[in-house]
């Protein structure tokens, strides 16, 4: 394997007893679900009536009262969103949903990430007043930390409703109403909602208060897209929201914008992965390189023709993003290859010509290759500053690490924020070496020894009789797999009947199944083709069983995540 490709990991197979509640489920699916903590047949039901009721969501009563007043008194409303896919879908959901519920169509505003940064700042309040003269600002996917921005809005006579899902700080903004599942004192069964999920709950509660029926369910495809793209935990509530959105797309009932994003990616609206790996990146590309309003206009499009035009534009931006990313990745991995000695506990990478909108993706790619937390830095527009975006590994809370660095080194960080697995920060260029040393030392101090062990959990081996199209369809379509509810993953050793490189970087395989006298196709994307032997007889791999559709034919296929010649 190449020095910059993650080596074949240690396999840890999940072993579970199938609970009685799953006795009626096909055995293969039952053991997979049991390994993910499912125990009863009721959890198989992904219908909307199993969503936690809005009345359990603390803070909704005040939010709905504010919105009812806004509707009754005909306030001008401006939705302030975020420049990622969750923020874009949440903005579209709030704009469309309020319009469906009798509001004059709200305006919306998404900060330019390069000029204004993240969230409701005093500058964004001024911009909203200049453009739209709103009476009410509604934040989606942001606002819980916007103390100064809310104060500026209130001082100007504006009302503010915050809807967010990020972790709150010790001090909350003095908004008219705040809705955040992480603020519910008694706990809320849907605590892992994405920003778009919080927006949807607001609209459900408002629809109920207005005694209207069935209108906001039309927005579930947008909710599904934002939920998957934001990589929140797919617990029971989020699985329901995603599955219901997917069902609408499969039935041709989704919004023109989401359907268009899937079409330009060559995907059928079938599984959650289509949202996460096809529609989501094209939507995110607008916020990374351009202006997220391009993405939001696609989601708000009312006709297929309008949506197609926007989706094509987003696809072009995404291709540009991939080209920028590829050059940055090659430079980053060359820098990694120059490292000597043991791999450090964490890495900080920097390029003077890197794009600040793409460093998050770059950090993710390097993290995947090395199984280490990574922060990638690019020059900010403000002279002398760097913008960093980091990605972490399971067992290491990245925001907590940055908090420890900031506490131990006052003045080193200008600002930072984020989650366990992803975070961002701003740093003066002259402090990069000092920060790198402090970051690596803090990670080393906080990390348990086994955090850096490359161990992959699998659902064991698949018997040859289980490698069928019926099982591939069952596993692909029965549940929306994702963060915290990972797709079924298996391991095994296979005889290679034929192999070839396709698309310059991908290894296509024909694998023998001698016990059943058959063969199955396999694919390993981005293989280290230069390091592969000319003749391959046997391989060991970790893979997913999926459906491959080609020229109208549907067949099972093994999609390898890791592969080595044996």
Automatic annotation (TrEMBL):
A GO term for molecular function: exonuclease activity
RecJ OB domain: residues covered: 458-561
Stored Pfam families: DHH (PF01368), DHHA1 (PF02272), RecJ_OB (PF17768)
Keyword hit for Hydrolase: yes
UniProt keyword annotations, A-Z: Exonuclease, Hydrolase, Nuclease
Annotated ranges, domain DHHA1: 351-443
DDH domain residues: 76-227
InterPro entries reported in the protein's UniProt record: DDH_dom, DHH_sf, DHHA1_dom, RecJ, RecJ_OB, SSDNA_exonuclease_RecJ
Family to which this protein belongs: Belongs to the RecJ family.
Protein name per Swiss-Prot or TrEMBL: Single-stranded-DNA-specific exonuclease RecJ
Annotated source species: Alcanivorax xiamenensis
């Amino acid at each position: 394997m190449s020095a910059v490709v993650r080596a074949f990991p240690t396999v840890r197979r999940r072993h579970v007893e199938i609970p009685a509640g799953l006795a009626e489920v096909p055995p293969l699916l039952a053991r997979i679900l049991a390994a993910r903590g499912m125990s009863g047949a009721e959890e198989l039901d992904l219908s909307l009536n199993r969503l936690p009721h809005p009345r359990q969501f603390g803070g909704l009563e005040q939010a709905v009262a504010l919105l009812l007043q806004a509707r009754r008194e005909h306030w001008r409303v401006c939705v302030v969103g975020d420049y990622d896919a969750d923020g874009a879908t949440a903005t579209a959901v709030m704009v469309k949903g309020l319009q469906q519920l009798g509001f004059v169509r709200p305006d919306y505003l998404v900060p330019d990430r390069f000029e204004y940064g993240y969230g409701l700042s005093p500058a964004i309040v001024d911009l909203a007043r200049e453009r739209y003269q709103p009476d009410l600002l509604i934040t989606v996917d942001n606002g819980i930390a916007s103390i100064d921005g809310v104060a500026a809005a209130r001082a100007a006579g504006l009302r503010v409703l915050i809807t967010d899902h990020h972790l709150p700080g010790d001090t909350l903004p003095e908004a008219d109403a705040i809705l955040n599942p992480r603020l519910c004192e008694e706990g809320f069964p849907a605590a892992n909602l994405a920003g778009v999920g919080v927006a949807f709950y607001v609209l459900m509660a408002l629809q109920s208060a207005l005694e209207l029926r069935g209108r906001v369910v039309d927005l579930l495809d947008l909710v599904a897209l934002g939920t998957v793209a934001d990589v929140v935990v797919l617990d029971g509530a989020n699985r329901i929201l995603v599955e219901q959105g997917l069902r609408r797309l499969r039935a041709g009932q989704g919004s023109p914008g989401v359907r268009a994003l899937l079409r330009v990616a060559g995907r059928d609206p079938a599984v959650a992965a289509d949202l996460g790996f096809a529609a989501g990146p094209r939507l995110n590309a607008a916020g990374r390189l351009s202006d997220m309003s391009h993405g939001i206009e696609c989601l708000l499009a009312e006709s297929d023709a309008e949506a197609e035009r926007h989706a094509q534009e987003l696809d072009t931006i995404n291709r540009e993003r991939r080209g920028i990313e590829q050059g940055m990745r090659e430079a980053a991995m060359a820098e990694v290859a120059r490292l000597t000695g043991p791999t450090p506990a964490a890495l900080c990478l920097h390029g003077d010509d890197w794009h600040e909108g793409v460093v998050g993706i770059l950090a993710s790619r390097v993290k995947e290759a090395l199984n280490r937390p990574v922060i990638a830095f690019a020059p900010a527009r403000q002279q002398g500053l760097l913008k960093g975006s980091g990605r972490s590994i399971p067992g290491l809370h990245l925001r907590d690490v940055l908090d420890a660095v900031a506490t131990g080194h006052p003045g080193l960080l200008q600002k930072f924020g984020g989650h366990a697995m992803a975070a961002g920060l701003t740093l003066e260029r002259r402090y990069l070496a000092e920060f790198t040393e402090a970051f690596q030392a803090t990670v080393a101090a906080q990390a348990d020894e086994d955090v850096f062990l490359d161990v992959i959990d699998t659902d064991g081996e698949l018997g040859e009789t289980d490698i069928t199209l019926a099982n591939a369809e069952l596993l692909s379509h029965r549940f929306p797999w994702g963060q915290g509810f990972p797709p079924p993953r298996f391991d095994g050793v296979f005889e290679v009947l034929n192999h070839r490189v396709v698309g310059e970087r991908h290894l296509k395989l024909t694998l023998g199944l001698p016990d059943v006298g058959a063969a199955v196709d396999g694919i390993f994307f981005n293989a280290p083709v230069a390091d592969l032997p000319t003749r391959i007889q046997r391989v060991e791999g970790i893979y997913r069983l999926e459906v491959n559709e080609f020229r109208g034919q549907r067949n099972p296929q093994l999609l390898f995540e890791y592969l080595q010649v044996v």
